[in-house]
Amino acid sequence: MSDKQDWVIETKNLTRIYGDGDQIRALDDVNLRIAPGELVAVMGPSGSGKSTLLNVIGALDVPTTGQVLINGQDLSDLKDKDVFRAKTVGFVFQLHNLLPTLTARENVEVPMAGYASAKEKARRSKELLELVGLGDRMKHLPGQLSGGQRQRVAVARALANNPRLILADEPTGSLDSTSGQELMALVREINHTQGTTFLVVTHDLTVSKQTNRIIVMQDGRITREDRIGSPLEEDLKMWRYSGLGKKLVNEDVESLKQIGMTKKRMRSLRKFLLEFGSDR
After folding, report:
1. pLDDT of amino acid 2
2. Contact 41, 213 (CB under 8 A)
3. In the chain, which segments carry CATH 3.40.50.300?
4. According to the model, what pLDDT value does residue 1 have?
5. Strand runs labelled E in the chain
6. Class of domain 4-228 (CATH, top level)
7. What is the rounded CA–CA span in Å between residue 162 and residue 157?
């Protein structure tokens, strides 16, 4: 796929610098392509540029240099970013950001204001809440819902105007493990049945393993990309990039001897990691 129209997201030499004196290079020459229907995770330590990348892609922030193209459209050419965000991109954040005085149904209808009739808003909000398993909670206020249910409402709201792209920033960060797993199961179902593209920022390896591809960032740069394989393959990949894994791959004999590892075991483990823990 070489034509720009084939990509939902494409960034070219994307850089975002904050500050005038001691500058912070939050994004540093990021080149990224995401195809229609992909479910992609972005991982990395705090300050690696994950959320900045999401904000720039979603037109919540502007790059210092470089380009962002969404469905082939250069965001620098946008005349109305509010319309773009309302109709092209859906957002899900760690905190659901629901309006506390509105019902679940009314919250889902908020992004449709000015873009749909009252009848269409009612139909669409009902449809989406049923999609996320909350057809019986439409009249409930956020305070009457569990954390997982509130995030499901947030997902329904993100889908309100039928965007091709959903940007999710730590969507399971405020949830317990069970609710987080349920939310990711919902994301996978929507990705599969609706063909919606998801870009999910997360620090949780269990979340990232449920996507199709993991992008790893460090100091504003993309340092690695992994295609998701079997659970065993993913565990081996993580082992390869761990401290011990790197010592084995780089044949750091002295360090490995200090933890009592024999040369024979080093060779066999290194061969195993290189063969089965590689990014294929």
Report:
1. 42
2. yes
3. 4-228
4. 41
5. 9-18, 24-34, 39-43, 65-70, 73-74, 89-92, 165-169, 197-201, 213-218, 221-227
6. alpha beta
7. 10
Least confident of 59-63, 98-102, 122-126, 260-264: 260-264
Residue 25 confidence (pLDDT) above 70: yes
One-character DSSP codes across 117-138:
-HHHHHHHHHHHHHHTT-TT-T
In the chain, helix, strand, coil percent, each to 5?
Answer: 40, 20, 35
Q: Amino acid identity of 199?
A: L
Bridge partners (DSSP) listed for residue 10: 33, 69
pLDDT, average across residues 214-231: 84
Tell me how crowded residue 84 is: count the other CB atoms within 10 A of its CB. 16
Full-model pTM: 0.78
Alpha carbon dihedral 193, 84, 73, 191, in 10-degree steps, equals -10
Comparing CA positions, the residue from 184, 178, 180 lying closest to residue 39 is 184
CA distance 233 to 72: 34
Residue 198 vs residue 79, higher pLDDT: 198
Q: What per-residue confidence (pLDDT) applies to 235?
A: 64
Contact 52, 70 (CB under 8 A): no
**pLDDT above 90 (res 230):** no
Which two three-digit tokens encode residue 88? 């092209």
Contact 18, 24 (CB under 8 A): yes
Place of tokens 């892609």: 57
* Order of strands across the sheet that contains 221-227: 89-92, 165-169, 197-201, 39-43, 213-218, 221-227
